[in-house]
Design a protein that fits this description.
The chain is mainly alpha-helical and 93 residues long. The chain has one domain. The chain is 55% helix and 12% strand. A three-stranded antiparallel sheet has the order 1-3-2.
Length: 93
């Protein structure tokens, strides 16, 4: 499982289990069972690349995982329309 897939899988659990539409990086990190150090070193940059408003220095995550998250306010995110569609398509398979 790639980092992007693991992040998305954690978000799927957060959104479906808690019926929660907003989440933080910390929520994702805990659900994915990733240490703070590992998150900072590798998962955090991938998460940045998955955001709609990703700042230009984030790694390229490929078109499938691009624009999945939308920033609601500082530290709080939600799935973009594309992110919801991506989860739905995965759940339908």
């Amino acid at each position: 499982m790639t980092h992007a897939e693991r992040i998305l899988s954690a978000v799927r659990c957060i959104v479906s289990l808690n019926e929660q539409s907003e989440f933080s990086r910390e929520d994702i990190r805990k659900k994915a069972d990733v240490s703070r150090e590992e998150w900072k070193a590798s998962y955090g940059p991938i998460f940045q690349g998955m955001r709609e408003d990703q700042p230009g220095r984030a790694p390229d995550v490929g078109p499938k995982y691009c624009r999945v998250f939308r920033r609601v306010r500082h530290g709080v995110h939600t799935l973009s329309d594309y992110g919801r569609q991506l989860l739905k398509e995965h759940d339908d398979h």
